[in-house]
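protien #1 (seq + structre)
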Amino acid sequence: MPLDPGAQRVLDLMRETGRPPMHSLAPAEARAVFTGSRAVLQPEPAPVALVEDLTCPGPAGEIRLRHYRGQGTGTGGTETGGTGAGAALPCLLYLHGGGWVVGDLDSHDQPCRALANLTGASVIAVDYRLAPEHPFPAAVEDAAAALRFVHAEAGRLGIDPARIAVGGDSAGGNLAAVLCLMARDGTLPAPGFQLLLYPVTDLGANTASYGRVTEGYPLTATTMRWFIDHYVAEPAQRHDWRASPLRAASLAGVAPAFVSTAGHDPLADEGIAYARRLDREGVRVAHLHLADQMHGYLTMGRFIPAAALTLRQAAAALRTHWGMDQD
C-alpha cells in the first residue's frame, strides 16, 4: 500500500532538514530532537476547560501528571490551573509514546487536549521515568502508581472511579496493555477500557513487519531495537509479559480494547496479533488498521489528517464504552 501523501511530506521534510535517525544519537540528543519536532509536526494545542499539573507518589519519588478536562465540562477551571472541581467525569489515564526513552508531558500535550475535548471527559497524562537511566520495570511501576492514585483520588479530581480507562501510543500502549493484565490479575484497580495506539506488544522484534520497515521512516526496525536495548538491556527479561504483553499466557478477562495499527510500521504485525488474540480469547475489541500510515503519525497532525481522524475514532470508542452517547 502506498504511503499517505501527508506522511510522505513528513519524510521529505526529515530528509530536507537532515534530521538524524534516533538510533544514531545518544538518549539526551534523541530527546532534544524529539522535542524540537513538536512545533513543526503538531497542530496548535486546542484550548480545554482545565489544565492542572499534579504529582503522585511513586516508587522512586514523585511522578508528574497533567490533568485535562474537555471543553464544556462545566468545571469553572482555567488554562492556568484550578482545583479540578466539577461534575465527576470519566477519565483516560494516558501514557505517552517514545520508546520508553523519549517523550514527556509536553510532547503529547496536543493529542491529550484533543482527546479531552473529543470525549468531553478527563485525561490524565503520566510523566513516567525513562530509560536508560531508569530501565524496565521502572516505567511499569510508575504507570501502576499513577493508576492507583487516580483511582484513590477520583473524588478530589472530579473523576468517576467506575469509568477509568487506560491508553497510550507506542511504548505508552505497551504500558497500558500491561496495566490491564496486572488489573486482571488483581494487583491494580481495574480499568474499564484500554486504548492501544500502534502499541509495542512483543520485544522479540522478529515479526515480518520488522523486515519490511528497515529504512527511511521515523521508526525503523533498527530504531526500535535501539529503544528496546535501552529499555530492557537483558534479553531474557524481554520474555516477561510486563515487557511483552503478547507473551502473557492468557489475555482472557482483560478490559475491552480499541487497537490501532499502521501498515508502514515495524510494530504493525505485533499490534495486529494482539488485537486478534484479544478477540480469540473472548475480549471485546475494535481494531483500526491504517495501511497507508506510518508509526508516529498521531503526533504529526499538522501534515497528516488521519491523526485527527484516528483520535476522533478513539474518542468515539471511549464515549460508547462510557455510555456518554446514549439517549
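ok now protien #2
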Amino acid sequence: MSRPAARVTRTVLAAPAHRTRLVESAARSSADAVFLDLEDAVPEQEKHEALQCARSALLNLDWGDKTVLVRVNAYGSRFIEDEVRTLAPLARLDSILVPKAEGPPEIADIARWIDAAEGTARAAPLSIDLLIETALGLVMVEMLAQSTPRIAALHLGVGDLSGSIGARSAEIGGSPDGYRHTTLSPCARYVETPLDLFAYPMMRVLVAARAFGLRAIDGPCGAYRDATLTRAWAEKAAALGFDGKQVIHPSQIDATRDAFTPSADELAFATRVVDAMRQAEAEGKGAVSVDGKMIDYANLRMAQRILMRGGAA
C-alpha cells in the first residue's frame, strides 16, 4: 500500500461527536479539516451514542471538500475496536485519528482491524493519523511514523503531553509561567527570558514526519478567545514548517489559516527564485544572485515548497 495522498490541512477543527449542533457547525465551517471526537470530549456513559452520531454525520452531512477524521479512543480501551470496525467502511471518512500513540505493534493492530473492515466502497484507503501526546509516544515517534503505510500525519497533543511530563502549565499549548531563564546582566540587573516548553517536541514530531513523508499538525491554542495568542502560536508552528494546527473553536480558523498561507511577498520572492534558477540552469550555472542573495538548489527547493503551500506550484 502506498502512502496516502497529501491533503491541505492548515486548520483541523475539533468537534465532540455527540454534540450534533457543533458537528453540523463544523461541517459548514471554513476549516480545511474536521475531526469528530469520540475520546476526551465525550463522557464515558455517552461513548456509544457518540459513535452512532459520528456514523450518522459521516453518512448524512455535506462535508464539501474537507478532510474528515474521527478521533477514536486510545488503544487498550474497551471502545476502540468497535469504533474502528464501525467507521472503517464509511466512504466519507478520510482518516482515523489515534490518540496517545505509543507502540508500533498497537498501530499495526489498528491497521489490521481496518484491513478487515474497510470493504470496497471507499475511493481511497482509509488513513491513520497519530496523536503524539505522551512521553513514551514522543520517544517512539520515529518508529510510530513508519509502523504502517496507512499513516498520513503526526499530530502533537500539547495538553496531554504537558501532563505526561509533569509540566506545571495552566494553558493548553502554552509554556509554564516559571519556565524561564534568569541571568544577571553586566549592570547588575536580572534579566528573564521566557522559554518554550514545546520547542523540542515540536521539532521532534516535525522531523519524524518529514523523514517519512507525513504531514505534521501542531496542537491547539487552548486560549481560543485570545486572538493574539491564537495567531502567534499558529505563526510559530507555520514558521517552523508544520502543515497545520488543530483549532478548538471556529473563531480560530481564519487567523490560523492565514498563518499557514504564504504572504504575497513570500510568494513573489519564491517565484523570483524559481525563475532565476531556471534561467541559471539554461546557462549552465548552479547558483545565481536574487535580490542581493546568493541562491542555489537548496533555495530552489525551499521556494518550491512555499509556492506549493500557496497553491502556485
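The mean pLDDT is 92.
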